[in-house]
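re: ur question from earlier - yeah i can do the single chain one, its not a big deal. heres the input i used so u can compare w yours
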Amino acid sequence: MTGILVLAGTPIGDISDAPPRLAQELAGADVVAAEDTRRLRRLTQALGIQVGGRVVSYFEGNEAARTPELVEALVGGARVVLVTDAGMPSVSDPGYRLVAAAVEKDIKVTAVPGPSAVLTALALSGLPVDRFCFEGFLPRKAGERLSRLREVADERRTLVYFEAPHRLDDTLAAMAEVFGTGRRAAVCRELTKTYEEVKRGPLGELATWAAEGVRGEITVVVEGAPEKTEQLDAAELVRRVQVREEAGERRKEAIAVVAEEAGLPKREVFDAVVAAKNAARSGTS
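and the output i got, formated as tokens:
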């Protein structure tokens, strides 16, 4: 008889949020695979239990190499419990490879539900929750980050992201550039912890706020794209920008306003203006 793989959710901050089954599973496991064995030790101490089985590390650096070993234990009948530093394994954390390998071997996979930064932030954001999509971490490089954001510029569902505190200001600035400075968002910091904070507002304001420096675990929730009330062609977008420029607005501000009015990414209006300018030059040369 094959064993069972248990994906065990762990608290994202407050240890008292740990579900009762978490302690039972950790104490009764044959093998506990932990993203950080030191954090596991602190967790079990807080829960007042001891792990009776073998403890192994299972993190991004050794996930591919250790998965076959854990699958072998499962095939041999072991009850393997997988925990990450916080939240549910495999959700932007190690676990997907092991789950996929276990499913391929027809091994039962179950879960101990636990706190989720994604759902907690979504619920606290004040933004629509009926439809949403989780985008995980954005790429670290600026160009790749902008490309990824442009892929979802027209996404109507609420968007949820994880982000490191030292990259938050750059990420919010990029979101403001692609989605528009007026798009509503919420930055959720240190959820369920002592210094929990939810900062809500337009992306432009949040980007300015984050430039002063933000600490802690971060989840960002962004309002989905507004429904486009009218389809404007490139010529009309350019005309509207020109009207604002003639009235005294700087081109950058004119583009931002036209993009927001049209429900379009600022880049799309910018590209239309540049294309028209290049076409005019070609026609006069």
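Residues 23 and 47 are 7 Å apart (CA to CA). not sure if urs matches, ping me
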